[in-house]
Amino acid sequence: MAEDYDKIKQAGAELFAISVDEQTYAWSMAQTTGAKFQILSDAEKKTIADYGIVNAAEHGGIAHPSTFILDKEGRIRYMYVGKDAGDRPPDETIILEVKKVASAK
Q1: Is 81 exposed, middle or buried (0-12, 13-18, 19+ CB in 10 A)?
Q2: pLDDT tens-digit series, residues 28-59
Q3: Are 83 and 70 contacting, i.e. CB atoms less than 8 angstroms apart?
């Protein structure tokens, strides 16, 4: 999604990534990758637990690769939870879903 960040933004969304890494590592990852979006830290794994996406089998508990699209009121309008790191929806799907949410009344 980093490569299509501008398209996602133009479609009407803001992009955030959430990592279970400590904030300093998340910040370093953003700097290293050149991400134009914020990478937030969930080192206590509270957010991934709240969303029910903890993958306890990997690295002592990380998130399944997940994509959520929320509307302006914070309601989840699209959710995709992958089985492994390569299981993610294509960016084109995300952009289409963002446009649907942005145009909904």
Answers
A1: middle
A2: 777 777 778 888 889 999 999 999 999 988 87
A3: no
